[in-house]
Design goal:
By secondary structure, this protein is an all-alpha fold. The protein has one domain (about 15-95): DNA polymerase, domain 1, CATH 1.10.150.250. The chain is built from five helices and no strands. The radius of gyration is 13 Å and the shape is globular.
Length: about 100
């Protein structure tokens, strides 16, 4: 995974899964694109605590993807690349399809 943000898989360096989840929640709520912040934040608050390491890796990879691209995938305006078409993305998409989502703004 490239980009300017280091992956948060620091368990071998003394970090904890709980700390990783806290950092991912913070990032999910502050991506810088309000619509995506709301979607990622709602998903993270509801499901992050239950994700296993694979799920956390998938979530983190989606956090590293460009906001405009993720938003296009979520709206169905662009096809989802295979590397991001996973259960976590399906969960994010489900947040978008809720009849009355609860946004924490």
């Amino acid at each position: 995974m490239g980009g300017y943000i280091r992956p948060m898989t620091d368990l071998k360096k003394g970090g904890s899964s709980e700390n990783r989840r806290k950092r991912l929640l913070f990032r999910a709520q502050r991506r810088g694109f309000k619509e995506v912040d709301l979607i990622f934040g709602a998903f993270a608050e509801a499901r992050l605590a239950r994700l296993d390491e694979t799920g956390l890796d998938q979530f983190e990879a989606l956090l590293a993807a460009p906001d405009q691209e993720v938003y296009a995938w979520l709206r169905g305006a662009a096809p989802v690349p295979a590397e991001f078409d996973n259960p976590v993305f399906a969960g994010l998409k489900a947040v978008c399809q809720q009849q009355a989502p609860r946004w924490n703004s």
